[in-house]
Amino acid sequence: MGIYTELYPVNNHLRHAELLDGLWRFQFDPESRGEADAWPKNGLPESISMPVPASFSDVFTDARSRDYAGDFWYETAFCVKEVSPDKRYFIRFGSVTHTCRVFVNGVECASHTGGFLPVVADVTSAVVPGMNRLTVKVNNELSETNIPCGTTVRRSDGTKRSMGYFDFFNYSGIQRSVYYMELPKRAIRDYSLVYRLEGSDAYIDYDIEADGGDEVSIAFIDAEGSIVARENGAQGTLFIPSAHLWKVRNAYLYDVVIELKQGGKVTDRYTAKAGIRTVEIKGESILLNGEKVYLKGFGKHEDADMIGRGFNYAIAKRDYECLKWIGANCFRTSHYPYAEEWYRMADEEGFLIIDEVPAVGMMRSIANFLTAGRGEAKGFFAECPDIETLSKNHKAAIEEVIARDKNHPSVIAWSIFNEAETYTELAEKYFAPLFELARVLDPQKRPLTGALEKSSSPAGCRVNKMMDFICLNRYYGWYISGGELEEAERMFREEMDAWQAKKLNKPFVFTEFGTDTLDTLHKLPGVMWSQEYQQEYMSMHFEVFAGYPAIQGELAWNFADFQTGQGIMRVNGNKKGVFTRQRQPKAAAYTIRERWLNIK
Ligand code: BDP
Q1: Could you say which of 181, 268, 552, 561 would form a disulfide bridge with 260 (CB–CB 3.0 to 4.6 Å)?
Q2: Rounded to an integer, what distance in angstroms lies between the CA atom of residue 152 and that of residue 70?
């Protein structure tokens, strides 16, 4: 096993995990003077309160604060009851967007680049008994050397503005939960599980990483509470006869208990859920436990009123209920890895996830959706100011997402990018080592993919050969031949015929297709932006999908309306939701529901 992001926090008599969510102190630092003025040591001089987790933007009532780009700071305090030489102390952030440095009592304990994966600070050498000051310096500027890609410009008044080469608001801040954790000095650091099925029996190859792990054990416990398999040693194979499998929308979860002993005494215990299932691509099929599965669902966003990209259980729960109601079984975490709680809930509900790294915007355009939708993309890699740094950050995201999510049964594939340049030699050179890395790192060797925009054509794309299944984002009837569904359908079929003629013998999944739709607009016959048009557009797509056996999934764009930057193409955000931003169905939701509930 490679890197680890410190396992998701659990509480038991050997491990302590305490949520630090709540109202923190917050201050913008447009002149970047916080460090020179020793804010980590002395405190934020003119702070306001700020909820954690949440994006900072939408709690403000002025545009300047909402659109702020640059450095900003968070601060809170946490209590350490006693500092023991037998323990290690951590602060674990679900994410900090996009780059950060973490200080405890003025001492820097961690720094991180990448806004959608955990930041773990080992604060052991900085903590004192009693109250401790925790300070986080954050920066949300976008560039072409970090993902997601974009640029930061200076306005005439000196303020900065982040412009994403992507179609979602650049929400930032501490958007996921923060834990204070006390772990035994010698701890279980990581584990991985790989499943093999033989008839109704399951073999589970496991690998545990623990400090001084001379006596490690692992046990699988079924839903009735019986230990069904147990092994000693850091590596080995568990055997479960007549295993209960984790199935789509019918998830069976075992409890996994990993213990570390020293001199016969248990010194650390980690508990988690596990679902036994295999994923495989065979010819044009996606197989789960050896059985064909057709993907139905959406590309989503972490996005809601007020909290922006902040994680909230009620919103996640409502989303899963809507997904169940409409007959979905899958979603893509477009365009970045989501908060870990999403995956834990998917494990329990039996949803399938295509887990995407935040590599979006590898196309130099702030109206990239238009450029991409029409297939007018221009080169990105040739002009990228520092491809090495970009690749380093992209690789780190792949490493970290696999480290974080490898044990979730819900995760069935990794998406290495969304709508990047793929049709040049440079692009091929850029992506080959990234796909290679993901293949090596994933212990379960899950399928790899990436979402291709229109310029990644059957003739021109040089990256689809690296993918195990091919994801297409297409907008026939919106960006192409908008308002003319018959013409759109002809062009759509023409492209699909060209893909079919290539005889790639791989499954295709539609990861984007959709129309902006106002929940207030009705018109018969449909016109663009009306609810009727979204319905007609969906029906046209469903007919085309039925004509191509290689199409093994349809993830509509988008689950719900979401916030974007401002522009003449966006009416307070992207309105391609099948649900509104408040998670109420538009008319097309019923069209889709009718179909999905009837696809077995
Ligand atoms: C695609 C992008 C997605 C956009 C979508 C759209 O992948 O992020 O939101 O188009 O235009 O280009 O709605």
Answers
A1: 268
A2: 9
